[in-house]
Amino acid sequence: MSNTLKQIIYISSAEHPFTDLELSNMLAAIRKNNEQHNVTGMLLYKDGDFIQVIEGEEEVLEPLFKVICKDHRHYSVVELMRKTIPDRQFKNWSMGFHHINNDDPRLAEFNHFFDDTINHQVDAGEALNLLLVFRE
């Protein structure tokens, strides 16, 4: 059994516009599960679109991502990056979260991530940079 750390970044569209309560309930369940399996990451939500990074041991992350892909709460899951990492970049977050508003100044250079239709040509490095901006 290896202890190889992996990081997966993906984008998807919400099945319907989520209310704050729905987001809160979803996050509580995600955080509980992630804490039990030593998974860390960050989830951003804006106008019905998600971008998420998850980190953890390969044996945990691979089946988790398969479950995420089958989750009925979203569709059009596009994996942007899957890589081995030496250290976690979101180690302080069982699942960090930001519900992004249109006027958030941190979004200025990343607005294209949340166009009306998800761009399947999103640069994975840019996606990681976006997540890192909101990590702080």
Summarize the structure.
The protein has 136 residues and is of the alpha+beta class. Helices cover 32% and strands 30% of the residues.
Would you give an account of this structure?
The chain is of the alpha+beta class and 136 residues long. The protein has three helices and five strands. The chain has helices at 20-37, 58-70, 124-135, and strands spanning 5-14, 40-46, 49-57, 74-84, 96-99. It has a five-stranded mixed β-sheet, sandwiched between helices. It is globular.
List the helices and strands and how they pair.
Blueprint: E1 5-14, H1 20-37, E2 40-46, E3 49-57, H2 58-70, E4 74-84, E5 96-99, H3 124-135
Parallel strand pairs: 2-5
Antiparallel strand pairs: 1-3, 1-4, 2-3
Q: End-to-end span in angstroms?
A: 33 Å
Main sheet specs? 5 strands, mixed
Average pLDDT works out at: 87
Strand content: 25-35%
**Shape from CA axes?**
globular
Sequence of secondary-structure elements: EHEEHEEH
